[in-house]
Specification:
Strand order of the largest sheet: 3-2-1-8-7
Radius of gyration: 24 Å
CATH architecture of the largest domain: Alpha-Beta Barrel
Shape: globular
Number of strands: 15
CATH topology of the largest domain: TIM Barrel
Helix content: 40-55%
Number of domains: 2
Structural class: alpha/beta
Bound molecules: cobalamin
Distance between the termini: 27 Å
CATH superfamily of the largest domain: Methylmalonyl-CoA mutase
CATH class of the largest domain: Alpha Beta
Number of helices: 22
């Protein structure tokens, strides 16, 4: 026991883990790794595999008579035709295949064309195949080998896009091989490489090597395969300046197009709420790459209400995207996100409604073009390009100064991943070149969450004297960290001390951090459908240490039941409470239910 009466919890192994995690959280650990093979050798290994793993046939390529989706996109760009993307994320392969066929056919009957489907893989697909079976499932689909991938690429005449949990994860090579054999010509998601951590997987060297081999295999195909990167899955959701996000696009293009010899297609949009910034980012991206984009993602963070309110958000961002694409056809498809997205994974009818809505809005869009001020868009795009280029140049120079071989894609990627968004922006973002520290173009998400935390703390200011000084260790179970950002801001606003428990942190590590810091409570922010097993794991770990701290759990408190035949998640609030934790649907809930907030 320690002097303050809290259990001495940390075994030596856990302490080592804490040191590694601390380095990861601050970006202050070593940027290189002697165990990492040279990028050249890894790309060559991937290229050699192209002898056995070649692009296979699929319904889309046959139906459209094109060698790749890139060629299809260029054709649509020349015709001035808007393309539509539908994201689909059921657990079962049968249900996904049936949904794709039905959606494509019914949309076509009703005058809408779905050009591409994005298939949301489960995060367990990110592990190498031998590690998948025992891992805690998220909410997406699990594909077992090339046959399952081929079922998806032949489910409808639209292009199948395999984005998430492929490239950038340790299972990258096996997944990429299977996707290529199944005829997929858009494969991602490089953005995830920079931010995602799978539970109980810290081998970033193996992750980097798998990704580089997969990139070598892609670049060696005769057909043009687009490497897709969702910037918002990468650092764009974490930078406070959208010019830094454009800088990352420049760096990623340099890695894939200059160092690897592939073609990089960008997606962006989740966090772009201000119409001007959204349109300007599209214009700025067109100035730094001419590779067709994959899609412009919906502004999903704007979905906060029920369907009626969310339809307003859908039309607001979609109109901006439609006008931007008619002004500059960049090959991006629009992505009308179903209005139930903030509740859970959308069902088939909801996806169809959003697609029909988009097709109708696309008919109305040209009539709005005269209302747009292109000069205002270009002025913001100028700032984004100026700030983005400066960020990318400073980052490459700064990494070289720190001993990173910036001509080696493996070394460069690992260093960027290890530094992380916050440290990169602090080192090389606005203000780093001696100019103003004001962002070139402030990120909407940070502005909105800062205001929400401030308002909430002001409303509860009377509690401040009683609560000031109490300590809460806060961690997230997955990549979603905005919920935690808001909770941190709100608690600090009431004078509490928030201990950083980490992002995508394992339950054991979060408990170790909390006990080591003498926290009065543990707060978990979770979105990936693992709230219940995670809450149980935290409580079991506390019990193992003989400790008894309140555990608050907020975010998306749902999961897909093992026996589910709909594949849709169900609420687990009651089960979390029964497990001994405090489920919180919002910040007020937290104050009302948890003893640590009683005066
Ligand atoms: C932004 C976002 C992202 C961003 C995250 C950026 C970042 N760095 O944080 C990006 C693009 C990276 C992303 C990725 C993914 N996402 Co996402 N994402 C969202 C989105 C749009 C918003 C979530 C958010 O940050 N909200 C902002 C917070 C502040 O608001 P809030 O959630 O309402 O939070 C309130 C409370 O919950 C509370 N709160 C939150 N945490 C805590 C903790 C405590 C202790 C307390 C007291 C309160 C509290 O505070 C808020 C105040 O009321 C939601 C959909 C939606 N509109 O909600 C999907 C959503 C959460 N994502 C989802 C999914 C599936 C994914 C992916 C798996 C998709 C994929 N295949 O790649 C990946 C995640 C992969 C991984 N390994 O983790 C699903 C989850 C499905 C489910 N559980 O039913 C959702 C619901 C979308 C959907 N319908 O499919 N996502």
């Amino acid at each position: 026991m320690r002097a303050d009466g809290k259990p001495d919890s940390l075994r030596p192994a856990a302490r080592d883990g804490l040191a590694r995690r601390a380095a990861r959280m601050t970006g202050e650990g070593p940027l290189g790794d002697r165990g990492l093979a040279p990028g050249r050798a890894l790309l060559a290994e991937g290229r050699a595999m192209a002898r056995d793993w070649r692009l296979g046939p699929c319904r889309f390529l046959e139906a459209e008579g094109v060698p790749s989706e890139a060629a299809y996109k260029r054709r649509a760009m020349a015709e001035g035709r808007i393309m539509q993307h539908a994201h689909i994320g059921f657990r079962s392969v049968d249900r996904t295949v049936a949904a794709m066929a039905e959606l494509h056919a019914v949309a076509a009957e009703r005058g809408a064309r779905i050009d591409r489907f994005g298939v949301t893989l489960d995060w367990t697909m990110g592990y190498p195949p031998d590690r998948r079976a025992g891992a805690a499932r998220g909410t997406g689909i699990v594909l077992n080998g090339p046959e399952d991938f081929a079922r998806i690429t032949n489910a409808s005449p639209a292009a199948a896009h395999f984005g998430d949990f492929m490239l950038g994860l340790p299972g990258a090579l096996e997944n990429t091989r299977a996707a290529i054999a199944a005829g997929a010509t858009a494969i991602g998601n490089l953005g995830q490489y920079f931010t995602f951590r799978l539970p109980y997987w810290d081998d970033d060297v193996a992750t980097t090597e798998a990704t580089l081999r997969a990139l070598g295999l892609i670049a060696a195909q005769e057909a043009e395969i687009l490497v897709h990167s969702n910037l918002d899955d990468g650092f764009a959701g974490l930078f406070r300046d959208m010019a830094s996000a454009l800088g990352m696009a420049i760096l990623e293009t340099h890695i894939v197009e200059d160092l690897v010899g592939g073609r990089l297609a960008f997606c962006f949009g989740h966090h772009f709420s201000a119409p001007l910034t959204r349109a300007a980012f599209h214009a700025a991206l067109a100035r730094v790459t001419d590779t067709p984009g994959s899609m412009i993602f919906g502004n999903t963070v704007a979905y906060r209400g029920g369907p009626a309110e969310n339809y307003a958000s859908l039309s607001a961002y979609l109109m901006v995207d439609l006008l931007a694409l008619s002004r500059q056809p960049t090959g991006h498809a629009v992505n009308p996100v179903p209005v139930t997205e903030n509740l859970r994974i959308p069902d088939v009818d909801e996806i169809l409604d959003a697609q029909l809505f988009a097709a109708r809005l696309a008919e109305a869009a040209p009539g709005h073009a005269a209302l747009v001020d292109p000069a205002a868009i270009d002025a913001v795009a100028d700032r984004l390009v100026e700030g983005g280029r400066a960020f990318a140049a400073r980052a490459l120079a700064g990494l070289a100064e720190r001993g990173v071989d910036t001509a080696d894609p493996a070394a460069l990627m690992l260093a960027i991943r290890r530094l992380g968004a916050k440290r990169m922006e602090a080192l090389w973002g606005a203000g780093a070149g001696g100019g103003s520290a004001e962002p070139f173009v402030a990120a909407d998400w940070a502005r909105e969450l800062d205001a929400a935390a401030r308002d909430w703390a002001a409303r509860h200011a009377a509690l401040r004297p009683a609560l000031a000084g109490r300590r809460v260790a806060l961690g997230t179970t997955d990549v979603h960290e905005h919920g935690a950002y808001l909770v941190r801001g709100a608690l600090e606003g009431l004078g509490l001390e928030v201990i950083d428990g980490g992002v995508s942190v394992d339950a054991e590590a979060l408990v170790a951090t909390a006990l080591d810091a003498g926290a009065d409570a543990i707060a978990v922010s979770t979105y990936n459908g693992v709230a219940l097993p995670y809450a149980r794991a935290v409580i079991a770990e506390l019990v193992r240490h003989g400790a008894d701290l309140p555990v608050l759990v907020g975010g998306k408190l749902n999961e897909i039941p093992a026996e589910s035949n709909s594949g849709l998640p169900v609420d687990v609030t009651g089960e979390i409470r029964a497990a001994g934790a405090y489920p919180c649907h919002d910040l007020d809930d937290m104050l009302a239910t948890c003893p640590v907030f009683r005066a």
